[in-house]
Design goal:
Chain lengths: 222, 263
């Protein structure tokens, strides 16, 4: 059986002729697995996530999702199956409900049934967003709350895999702990495959989490 | 004063008008605005460009040549794109060629429609009608396009993360940039719509003033002006929508990834 995601011989550089950020990178992620990618700033960790969901285009190499090249999957479909959650959470100017239901307003999401208020409220509780009203403006939330809301929004879209870019970088210790516990539950209870990019020493408390580190333009996995 | 009697402005009378420039120069000097050089250059350019234009139009109107008329039209559109380029200052995404081609085709059709069908000139390219009509369309829509294009690029840069967030949640490039696109289009179109609100109340439009000064019956002049106002709104809308759709597509790559780099 194919891994969920196969990365083969991937190279990336920003401009033609410039030195590559990384070269000949290989990585397999199986269904329901969790990979933590570490490395210093600027080594290409975030770029790797952006290449997987084609927000950037590789110089060479292939990325297969369920055995099919990501280049051959219509971008909206690809990105709702492999959802990248940005380092700095972004909200639209509207209520929390507007933000959570945003994916259902797009052509691709319109045929999916949107969750009702009761299920959204249950999810808010599960994401440690107790006592927050769906009518509240999303822009007024703290960074930590926005981060949890953006992961929740991504989950509502029903992805097979989440790409989390430095999810705790702007959070205090308490918010970071909450987020890690959410991440671990997503993996163990909901079976979501995860690639988490971080420069912290975070090691998820999930079984068989793979840890990879960028060293001199190469990705070394344990 | 009788209708249709034009009072010619003599050269000494023209020089008298320079007093207005003198007032502007003194203001700049007293207030230390540092605009004296610009006012001088502007004055010289106004006189030179308009005299040149006057001679050129006299020649073109006299020549009555289809290809010369169309050639002038192409030069006018080309100059408009050049001016837009100066105002927009975008180096990453190229937009000049589609803008030129869209302006060329949509303004040609507008000028053709107005001079041929609305005014009813024969031949349709009669330079005395076709060139001023085209000039008004190009001048007005050029400003609208410059505003819209500039707004589109600056907002794509400023809201880059929001656009990418929407892409990541399954939006196509049109959905991800819908708000920016709408805002940019509106920003370009609002001045010509506002002009329709104020015309005749707040200001007398240049073309109509010119016709009245040249002795035309105001009731005839207003009909021309009504046609011009409608034409300007319509041509701005058509050219803006086409140009902006093309440029927006160019802001994204083949995988609908945002190509506009951060500020």
């Amino acid at each position: 059986m194919h891994p969920l995601l196969e990365i083969r011989d991937l190279s990336f550089g920003y401009d033609k002729g410039s030195s590559p950020v990384f070269e000949h990178l290989n990585l397999d992620v199986r269904k329901g697995k969790c990979v933590v990618v570490k490395g210093p700033s600027g080594c290409g960790k975030s770029t790797l996530l952006r290449l997987i969901c084609r927000l950037n285009i590789p110089r060479s190499g292939t990325i297969l999702f369920k055995g099919k090249s990501v280049a051959d999957i219509p971008p909206p479909e690809l990105r709702s199956k492999i959802t990248y959650v940005q380092q700095i959470p972004q909200m639209i100017d509207g209520t929390i409900r507007d933000n959570l239901l945003l994916p259902f307003t797009f052509a691709l999401g319109q045929h999916k049934s949107a969750p009702d208020d009761a299920s959204l409220e249950r999810m808010l509780d599960a994401f440690y967003l107790h006592g927050i009203s769906l009518e509240q403006s999303a822009l007024k939330l703290s960074v930590g709350q926005k981060q949890r809301l953006s992961i929740m929004r991504a989950i509502l879209n029903g992805p097979d895999m989440l790409l989390l870019d430095e999810p705790t970088s702007a959070l205090d210790a308490e918010s970071a702990t909450m987020l890690f516990s959410i991440i671990e539950r997503l993996n163990t209870e909901e079976g979501k495959a995860l690639i988490i990019v971080t420069h912290s020493d975070y090691q998820p408390a999930v079984s068989q989490a793979k840890s990879c580190t960028f060293r001199n333009g190469k990705l070394e996995c344990s | 004063m009788l209708m249709n009697q034009i009072i010619e402005i003599s050269i000494p009378q023209l020089l008298l008008a320079l007093l207005f420039i003198l007032v502007a120069q003194i203001t700049s000097l007293v207030q230390r605005l540092g605009l004296n050089k610009d006012i001088t250059i502007g004055t010289i350019r106004t006189v030179a460009q308009l005299f040149l234009m006057g001679y050129a139009l006299t020649f073109i109107f006299g020549a009555q040549n289809l290809w010369l008329t169309l050639g002038i039209f192409v030069v006018m559109v080309f100059s408009a794109v050049f001016i837009i380029r100066g105002r927009v200052k975008e180096t990453q995404i190229s937009y000049e060629v589609p803008t030129f081609l869209t302006m060329l085709s949509s303004y040609f059709l507008t000028a053709l429609f107005v001079s041929w069908l609305v005014i009813g000139v024969h031949p349709w390219w009669e330079p005395r009608y076709f060139i001023p009509t085209a000039g008004m369309v190009i001048g007005n829509s050029m400003s609208a396009l410059a505003i819209s294009i500039e707004r589109l690029f600056s907002q794509m840069r400023q809201q880059r993360d929001v656009v990418e967030m929407k892409l990541c949640l399954g939006a196509n490039y049109r959905e991800a940039s819908a708000d920016i696109f709408k805002g940019a289009l509106k920003a370009g179109m609002i001045p010509s719509i506002n002009a329709m609100m104020g015309v005749g109340l707040v200001f007398i439009p240049g073309m109509m003033s010119g016709q009245i000064l040249a002795g035309t019956d105001p009731l005839i002049a207003i009909r021309y002006q009504i046609v011009v106002m409608f034409m300007l709104v319509g041509s701005t809308a058509i050219s803006s929508i086409i140009v902006m759709r093309i440029i927006r597509r160019r802001c994204f790559g083949a995988s609908e990834e945002l190509l506009v780099s951060p500020e």
